[in-house]
Amino acid sequence: MRIFWLISVLGAVLSLRGVFANDTHTNNWAVLVCTSRFWFNYRHMANVLSMYRTVKRLGIPDSQIILMLSDDVACNSRNLFPGSVFNNADRAIDLYGASVEVDYKGYEVTVENFIRLLTDRWSKDQPKSKRLLTDENSNIFIYMTGHGGEDFLKFQDAEEISSYDIADAFAQMHEKKRYNEIFFMIDTCQANTMYSKFYSPNVLAVGSSRLDESSYSHHSDVEIGVAVIDRFTYYTLEFMESIEKNSTLTLQDLFDSYTFDKVHSHVGVRTDLYERDPSKVLVTDFFGSVQNIVLDDIDQADNAYEDSQESQESSDLPDHILQLAIEKSRDEVTSKKNESKVHIRKATLVDYEDSIAEMSKVSHHKMLLEVRVFLIFMGLLIVYYYSRKR
Amino acid sequence: MSTLGLRKAVAIWFFAVYVFVGVPLWYKLTTIYRAPLPIEHIRSMHENPHTDLHLVIPVYVRSDTYNFPDVHDAIQVQVNELLKSKKGPLTWSLQVLPFESWVNEESDYVVTLALDNFIGYTIPYDSKETIVFFNDESVVANDIPFFVAQTLIEHTFGLEWQHFSESKDVIKETNNNMAISYTPNVHLSISLLTGDGRPVAWDIVPTLEEYFTPLRRFISPLVNFTVDTGIVYYNDLKLGSLSGSDTASWQDLSHTVDLSELSSMNYYSERTVLNLAIVFPGHSAGNLSFINSTSKHDWQSFLVPQWGVLVINKSPLPDSTRLTKDYLTPIIYKFSRELFQLLGLATQAADLSTPYVTIDSFKRLMIIRNLDESTETLWSLVKLVEQFPQMAVPEEVLVNVRKALDLRLQVAELINDPFKGGDAVWNQALLLSNELFRVCEDAFFHKEMVQQNFFPQEHKIAVYLPLLGPLTVIMLSGLVNAFKRKQKEESSAEKDQDVKE
Questions:
Q1: Which domain holds residue A387?
Q2: Looking at the structure, do residues B240 and B281 belong to the same domain, yes or no?
Q3: Any B CB within 8 A of A61 CB
Q4: Has this prediction a pTM greater than 0.95?
Q5: Were both Cys, which of A193, B31, B308, B439 would link to B275 (CB 3.0–4.6 Å)?
Q6: Which of B342, B448, B454 should one mutate to test binding to chain A, selecting the residue with the greatest count of A CBs within 10 A?
Q7: pLDDT in tens, B63-82
Q8: How far apart are CA A382 and CA B411, in angstroms?
């Protein structure tokens, strides 16, 4: 019995170790895109703002969240609750109430800008807040919602992005080491087709519905008059509400939480490009920002400072980089002072030499002028003399 | 010429203009410009990454006691043998030369042979000199050259030995998760955070001027720091929630500390930002009992990988406190040591014991890393251009690529020269390699290289078909008509002749 108990404890410890094994990423980013506009697509705006609230709650700073949103519902004339956006008919959480930083709004939400954002190809005047400044240690969560079809997603009824475009953009990101891992989530009709063309490594993808299948909205708010959230996002958020920064729930737990009864469509997960087992990947690896914090308990610095205070008058200073830098700086100041003295002497000498040179130049010029005047005068005299003779 | 012949000639003429002038012109004007990149050159650079590089570091040997006329040659032989024993990713060597009067001891590598009772070596903390001690027995046994070679390779140039001779990938090995990726410009944001709104002041400017500015100057050939400071009220990074616990593991801290308000790097022009946050809990939260305060200090320091340093104080600040130099100086001392860990120059296990030598070696490592990364960037660019035939490749990209290849040559010339090796040379090489890195990034991330990427070829046909379709139909039908009419007329003429006959 004791052996069984020991084995189970060991197993639990090992599995926990497995869950925490990945420390390859040091920063988290989120790209949240709502590709729809107009009042009747209220739910898409609410989807994205809910995700925004979640990732922000779990610690991803605003500077590392890129929010692309047409942003035309909060202040829409049809909105009974001006300046507010809700994702539930109970209207418990105002998604727009807290500080929301929309990075791309209105007609800035375009395919071109989205591709530029992923590939970071901008003109030099593009502000840092609107760039995805990721590196090889970044985990990126990409969430897209809108109206789509087989292998495409509409952008504001004007253009569409294809699954190939996103796949190629990811390839470019991988080529330039712009991510450690990507978690791609999409809530749209036939969403699973959108990740079918991915070919870059370390991309995990989840979609709300498979080919020839629609994604549905969850419920409507009678007073708002339109659907306020989509089913897939609703149940994702329901799961996320139980997550805190110290949660040990994994992405597999999230995937297991989706059922056909809830979502009314077949949620798809693509793991073949992803190296890790989703059951060992914490949800907070993508949805939050959990910083590794290491205690620095070496007292060498303290001792160095104490010693330096004690031995300020003696020349025997302790080995500390700051002490070395201060010493070097003092030496430089002293040598500069000496040099400047020499410079002053040299400068006066140079000035003196210059003045001599200047004087000689001036006198030379004067002499030339005198000779010229003398010659002209002599010439005139000779001419006068000969004219008188004739 | 008959009317029919004229008509035929005109039709042919129009068609010829259409085919030989119009179509090529249309093709030319609608073709995406793709600058001819030196693809083969870049491919060969990628396949044989270090063939043009042979890093040579000159070292000058002098002897204080005995006169060894040919010791440098003997050391050179031993150094070469030692380096041959391990083949790493980069060829590198030392050029051992006799000490001359013009050698600058501060900037060049000097080995001093000193007679002593034992055999040993030392690298002083404040210089680049390597002092090798020997005794008379070692002279008799002729051990000095080997011992000097070993000291130089394994200790003075330990970093090079580790990265160039042992590891396989210079780039990967130089990065660890604690340190930021090397960049010549780093911003340092120093904040004082307090959990409540009680007024607080700090003497940060005089403290930094006295203690941190010399360090900034000292390290400026490697990294340029820009600094800003600020006080943040009503923010204790949520540490107040830990006030009740006597012990806090790194997991508790990781899950509690909220750095999101301090992580906004958007306000600085530098790409990389490091932080130093000095945090005081609010009065409502009370003391943080998990902080082990010592007799010296009431705070503990924590490193956050690639982010910076957190200095967490045990007790809240009293009303209207002024934090003086006495409080701030030990923090700056500690932070400066940690800064080297965050820059990748030291690790928590191994401290910076020989700063001059380590900084110099780090410069060389970064030069090679920049060269490797820029080659990788150029290779990625080539792959990208080959993968997307519809993508535009502007002239500026070609200019940048050429500039990059030229810069690489300049860097190679500097580091390959066996007689160049002072501080100025390594600084210059690092500067050029940083520029090379930047130019390659500019080439890869050119903003025009995205516009046509998602613009399919059939769009071009769709746009031009309404204009060119009718034109083509008229041309072709006109030409066919002209020929048909001729045939008809010829056949009718033949018929007329037959009837006459």
A1: 314-390
A2: yes
A3: yes
A4: no
A5: B308
A6: B454
A7: 877 778 888 899 999 999 99
A8: 74
